[in-house]
Inverse folding.
């Protein structure tokens, strides 16, 4: 009888062991899946969060001369230009230009124009050597491609720059004769 009880007891212990082992396995499987899911969620969430963050484009941009940064670009005050407003608008104009002047139906004449800085950021003087007595003062336009010279004494001027090609257009009346002149020249050298 003692032997039967021992066998019975071994069977009960074995069933208890199998029951607890099965319960332990189910419990561990639950935690294993829960932890894998939690780590996967944290990994995916942090990846999405990290890649969706936008860095402020204005942090590294140093706008000068009173310019301000907007959406990663410098917004320059009038008279300044460049990626960080580091150049005055008049810098590209200040030079001597060689070319020719054609007035009405006359033959073209060799001529030159000198543009010098008067005051920064955008006031220049313009001297056309065929009309040396007429020294004009104007301001470089906000777009940086034209010099605005106020009309005076019935004279009208338009001065434009396209790359290094200068166009100086003038209209005036001299001794009751209307005169339309155009100077076309290329930049010979820069001056200070």
């Amino acid at each position: 009888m003692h032997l039967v009880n021992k066998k019975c007891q071994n069977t009960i212990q074995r069933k208890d062991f199998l029951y607890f082992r099965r319960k332990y396995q189910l419990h561990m499987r639950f935690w294993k899946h829960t932890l894998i899911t939690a780590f996967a969620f944290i990994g995916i969430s942090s990846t999405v969060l990290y890649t969706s963050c936008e860095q402020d484009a204005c942090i590294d941009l140093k706008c000068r001369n009173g310019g301000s940064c907007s959406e990663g670009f410098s917004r320059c005050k009038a008279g300044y230009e460049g990626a960080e407003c580091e150049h005055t608008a008049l810098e590209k104009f200040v030079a001597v230009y060689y070319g020719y002047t054609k007035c009405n139906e006359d033959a073209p004449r060799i001529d030159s124009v000198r543009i010098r800085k008067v005051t920064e950021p955008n006031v220049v003087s313009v001297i056309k050597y065929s009309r040396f007595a007429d020294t004009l003062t104007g301001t470089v336009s906000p777009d940086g491609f034209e010099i605005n010279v106020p009309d005076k004494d019935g004279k009208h001027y338009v001065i434009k720059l396209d790359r290094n090609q200068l166009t100086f257009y003038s209209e005036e009346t001299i001794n009751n004769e209307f005169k339309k002149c155009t100077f076309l020249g290329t930049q010979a050298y820069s001056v200070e």
Notes: Helices lie at 2-52. The longest strand covers residues 177-190. The chain has three domains: 1-53, 54-85, 90-190. The mean pLDDT is 83.
